[in-house]
Amino acid sequence: MSANLPDDDRPTEIWPSSVEPELAALLVDLIAREGMLDRAAMKPGATLDELDFDSLEAVLVINGVEQAFDIEIGSEVRWGEVRNLGELVVLLADTVKRATPALQS
């Protein structure tokens, strides 16, 4: 296997290291599905404006996360602090971990 990959073949989805890769992948898929967003556009640095992610998508994603993890999020998620998809994944992962004792490190 060659370490000299062309730039186009390098991984472009480097999610924050504070989130386990499996949880990040699950949350990104959930955000894309529930928010009716283009999965191909789901990159960590993509801003929520670039993704056309607004309050309706936020509600759909919260409902999806609550159902997927059997938790209640309520109003604790601070969307105003999120600048891009990577930060949204971190915020949701932290929320899920706090509400799901089995996922806490």
From TrEMBL:
Kindly give the Gene3D superfamilies that the UniProt entry links to this protein: ACP-like
Superkingdom to which the source organism belongs: Bacteria
Pfam families xrefs: PP-binding
Q: Where is the Carrier domain?
A: 18-96
Q: What is this protein called?
A: Acyl carrier protein
Source organism:
Xanthobacter aminoxidans
